[in-house]
């Protein structure tokens, strides 16, 4: 048998295969399922495909040289084929047609009027219809995008044809049909891009400022990219180009309603999320309402602009700023006394109803605003040339959706009445008046304080004479809370009848039981008016007793923050002690985080929002509330999640009020949960705000990894999550910590930043750990200037609870999520 013919065939086969690879469909040569087109530069491939976990067949375009099939365009996204007998062809009139086995047309394009049409896949990923002799493009897939914007694609409106190209997310990973999430250019006023969920706007880019969209300040830091925005009589479009050919990048609206830019990492074989939005609470559309300013680095995040005051002060106290702000003083258009206050580093307000002139100077813009009685603010339309910029954006409506950045953004000039402008400047001749006013206010406050003290003493005597069971409100004193408390506070709050609680929970039925902790069982209930509640019932065998019950009532009733669970009232009847809370639909964080079947529901955006929310809640407790409060039992099971997965800190039974001059306290009664307690607290009984910071750091690492701070990690020497994380950090392998449930879909720079923050918070020495105010700022920064962490606590030695208990200690220790109480012997 001669081998040479076989060898020749083997050598020529690859060449023959390559030569037969095509990028074109002609009238007589359709594309059947199983065949593909490959662009001339081998960058893209077109053919029939089935999405993940689906048997349906679609015609799509995907990257040819990337190991993970990534579809960037789908033709028949609403009309799948159930089998593998579909065909894509081009008709003699230039119309593209997808047919099934029985020749039924399930998708087609309009006729083009070409005489000899062909359909060709270009190396940009664009699938076009044109004349055979390389004539002009009559139809192109770039005009009908799916969920992806590729380099060179135009996003926005053709004002001549009326075509507005937008990106619409898939319904799911297995269904490319259009979902409710889409991004589209709004060409009114000063054009900007909005992200929508159905009919609701959920995020916007802000207008183009000559360099970037004002709501995406990161754009100017991108290397290897070129961004373009065209606004003329023919079109208003945005596009990007890649200068570095080694970079593969795409812009996508995903099925979770997130706008994100991804870069392909060849070495890792993954798409890495480079940027995404919405990212923080200030990215939501107008979280602070009209004339409010959102700053994610502040707590609370919403403030009114200069010259404005909250429309609903009570709602603002509850951290609900959606009502916005109103003017202190009406504008004076007649006498011309109005002026302007500057909001620096701003994302400009919603510009869909504004006036735009690209040729005016900023001074001309100011004059025009003062001459128009309806004008509320103005700004430069283009700041690319430096200085004050050129062009004019002028608002004649109320200002909404304003946020500020640390360094980015631009100046916004808000029109104010003269009285509100004067209120911000303190001239020397007014200082004496201000001092006199301050003295009067101080004396009035002192008199009020004395009057309140007298009323308090009288009321206290009346309550004692009234006897038990005769009041309609609960009254506790902080000297009853625990042995460490030294202050007294009276509190009145709603009392619920035991019968109402029993009815609401259907007799505290097992079906309504949400869970159980050291305090006792928690039940879901529904009041007569339909309000859903959570009822925490003190168990007779509870390791937390009446002191903790009273402590929680005292503390949480006085606290109001969007990231703290809200106490609605309590029930005290006979031996029953219950706390009534707002109901949290998604229960606690640990339910999702440590359950592999549910952890996939926590994408990175949700996890990051949870981290930020916990940080802001702790900052409020430590710094912004009327008391300085140490929680002392921060853990995943004490972080509750509402319907939108927003975190709320709960369970204040172990919390402690600090005095104004107290920095730390030493206690003989150690409370908390194993794995979350700071070393100085667990070993020496010393706690401070830095104890909560340590617990927060553990939580951050648990949220990133999806694992508890307990057990052996990879190597037998790793006793816990902190040791494991510290090892990966030193080996520059931090991303190996990330929960597999995220499936590599996360921004690596942001994850590394959070790991660094987590390690900074769990450092062994309390003085090395940051305050929560610094943590909130770190979360809002790019992470480049953060300090390097030192060794975590418990990283190099076993904890005292991992050895046998000393006979000099009385222990009440329950591991996992149960609270620990240890009383040190003398």
The counted number of beta strands is 48
End-to-end C-alpha gap: 96 Å
Structural class from helices and strands? Answer: alpha+beta
How many helix segments? 15
User: What is the assigned CATH homologous superfamily of the largest domain?
Assistant: Transferase(Phosphotransferase) domain 1
Structure description:
It is a single chain. By secondary structure, the protein is α+β, with helices and mostly antiparallel strands. It folds into five domains: 13-144, Bulb-type lectin domain (Agglutinin, subunit A, Orthogonal Prism); 146-279, Agglutinin, subunit A, CATH 2.90.10; 282-407, no CATH class; 471-583, Phosphorylase Kinase, domain 1; 589-824, Orthogonal Bundle (Transferase(Phosphotransferase), domain 1), CATH 1.10.510.10. It has 15 helices and 48 strands. A hairpin with a 4-residue loop joins β23 and β24 (270-277). 41% of the residues are buried.
Break the fold down into its secondary structure elements and pairings.
Blueprint lengths: L3 H17 L3 E2 L5 E2 L3 E3 L5 E6 L8 E6 L7 E4 L12 E4 L5 E4 L5 E4 L8 E5 L5 E5 L5 E4 L7 E2 L5 E4 L5 E2 L1 E6 L2 E12 L5 E6 L2 E5 L20 E7 L3 E8 L6 E5 L5 E7 L4 E8 L14 E3 L7 E3 L3 E3 L2 H5 L7 E3 L11 E9 L7 E7 H10 L5 E3 L10 E6 L6 E3 L5 E7 L1 H5 L5 H39 L31 H7 L8 E4 L4 E6 L5 E6 L8 H11 L10 E7 L2 E7 L6 H5 L2 H4 L4 H21 L3 E3 L8 E3 L5 E3 L6 E3 L5 E3 L2 E4 L6 H6 L1 E3 H17 L15 H10 L17 H14 L10 H9 L28 E4 L7 E5 L2
Parallel strand pairs: 25-33
Antiparallel strand pairs: 1-10, 2-7, 3-4, 4-5, 5-6, 7-8, 8-9, 10-11, 11-12, 13-22, 14-15, 14-21, 16-17, 17-18, 18-19, 20-21, 22-23, 23-24, 25-26, 27-28, 29-33, 29-34, 30-32, 31-32, 31-34, 35-36, 36-37, 37-39, 38-39, 40-43, 41-42, 44-46, 45-48, 47-48
Helix pairs in contact: 10-12, 10-15, 12-14
């Amino acid at each position: 048998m001669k081998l040479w013919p076989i060898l020749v065939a083997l050598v020529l086969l690859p060449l023959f295969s390559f030569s037969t690879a095509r990028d074109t469909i002609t009238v007589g040569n359709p594309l059947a399922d199983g065949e593909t087109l490959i662009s001339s530069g081998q960058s893209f491939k077109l053919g029939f495909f089935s999405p993940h976990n689906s048997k349906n067949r679609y015609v799509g375009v995907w990257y040819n040289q990337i190991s993970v099939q990534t579809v960037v365009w789908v033709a028949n996204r609403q009309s799948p084929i159930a089998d593998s007998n579909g065909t894509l062809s081009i008709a003699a009139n230039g119309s593209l047609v997808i047919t099934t086995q029985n020749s039924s047309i399930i998708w087609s394009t309009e006729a083009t009027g070409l005489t000899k049409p062909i359909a060709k896949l270009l190396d940009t990923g664009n699938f076009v219809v044109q004349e055979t002799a390389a004539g002009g493009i009559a139809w192109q897939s770039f005009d009908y995008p799916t969920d992806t914007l590729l380099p060179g694609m135009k996003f926005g409106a053709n004002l001549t044809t009326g075509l507005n190209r937008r990106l619409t997310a898939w319904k799911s990973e297995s269904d490319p049909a259009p979902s409710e999430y889409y991004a589209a250019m709004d060409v009114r006023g000063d054009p900007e891009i909005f992200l929508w969920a159905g009919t609701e706007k959920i995020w916007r880019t802000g207008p183009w400022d000559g360099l970037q969209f004002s709501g995406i300040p990161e754009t100017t830091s991108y290397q290897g990219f070129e961004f373009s925005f065209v606004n003329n009589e023919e079109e208003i479009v945005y596009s990007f180009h890649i200068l570095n050919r080694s970079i593969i990048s795409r812009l996508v609206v995903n099925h979770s309603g997130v706008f994100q830019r991804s870069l392909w990492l060849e070495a890792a074989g993954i798409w890495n999320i480079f940027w995404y939005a919405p990212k923080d609470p200030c990215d939501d559309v107008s979280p602070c309402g009209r004339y409010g300013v959102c700053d994610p680095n502040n707590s609370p995040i919403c403030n009114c602009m200069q010259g404005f005051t909250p429309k609903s002060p009570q709602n603002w106290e509850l951290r609900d700023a959606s009502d916005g702000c109103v003017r202190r003083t009406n504008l004076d258009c007649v006498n011309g006394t109005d002026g302007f206050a500057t909001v620096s580093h701003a994302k400009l307000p919603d510009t869909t109803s504004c006036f735009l002139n690209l040729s005016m100077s900023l001074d001309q813009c100011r004059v025009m605003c003062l001459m128009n009685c309806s004008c509320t603010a103005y700004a430069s339309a283009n700041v690319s040339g430096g200085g004050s910029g050129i062009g004019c954006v002028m608002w004649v409506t109320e200002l909404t959706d304003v946020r500020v950045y640390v360094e980015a953004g631009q100046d916004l000039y808000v029109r104010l009445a003269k009285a509100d402008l004067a209120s911000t400047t303190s001239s020397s001749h007014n200082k004496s008046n201000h001092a006199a006013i301050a003295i009067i206010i101080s004396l009035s406050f002192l008199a009020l304080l004395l009057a309140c003290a007298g009323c308090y003493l009288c009321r206290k005597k009346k309550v004692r004479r009234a006897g038990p069971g005769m009041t309609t409100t609960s009254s506790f004193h902080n000297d009853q809370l625990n042995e460490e408390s030294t202050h007294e506070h009276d509190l009145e709050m709603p009392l619920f009848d035991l019968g109402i609680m029993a009815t609401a929970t259907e007799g505290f039925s097992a079906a309504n039981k949400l869970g159980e902790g050291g305090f006792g069982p928690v039940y879901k209930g529904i009041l007569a008016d339909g309000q859903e509640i959570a009822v925490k019932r003190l168990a007779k065998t509870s390791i937390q007793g009446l002191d903790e019950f009273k402590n929680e009532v005292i503390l949480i009733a006085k606290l109001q923050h969007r990231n703290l669970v809200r106490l609605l009232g309590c029930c005290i009847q006979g031996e029953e002690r219950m706390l009534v809370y707002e109901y949290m639909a998604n229960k606690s964080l640990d339910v999702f985080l440590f359950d592999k079947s549910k952890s996939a529901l926590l994408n990175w955006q949700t996890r990051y929002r949870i981290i930020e929310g916990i940080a802001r809640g702790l900052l409020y407790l430590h710094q912004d509330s009327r008391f300085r409060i140490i929680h002392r039992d921060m853990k995943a099971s004490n972080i509750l999640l509402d319907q939108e997965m927003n975190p709320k800190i709960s369970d204040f039974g172990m919390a402690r009020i600090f005095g104004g001059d107290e920095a730390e306290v030493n206690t003989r009664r150690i409370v908390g949960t194993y794995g979350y307690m700071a070393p100085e607290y667990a070993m020496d009984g010393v706690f401070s705000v830095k104890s909560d910071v340590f617990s927060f750091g553990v939580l951050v690492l648990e949220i990133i990894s999806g694992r508890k701070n307990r057990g052996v990690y990879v190597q037998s020497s790793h006793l816990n999550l902190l040791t494991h994380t510290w090892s990966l950090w030193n080996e520059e392998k931090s991303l190996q910590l990330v929960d597999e449930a995220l499936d590599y879909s996360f921004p690596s720079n942001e994850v590394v930043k959070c790991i660094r923050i987590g390690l900074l918070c769990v450092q062994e020495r309390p003085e090395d750990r940051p305050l929560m105010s610094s943590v909130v700022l770190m979360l809002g920064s790019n992470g480049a200037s953060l300090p390097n962490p030192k060794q975590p606590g418990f990283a190099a030695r076993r904890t005292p609870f991992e050895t046998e208990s000393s006979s000099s200690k009385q222990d009440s220790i329950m591991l996992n999520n149960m609270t620990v109480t240890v009383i040190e012997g003398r």
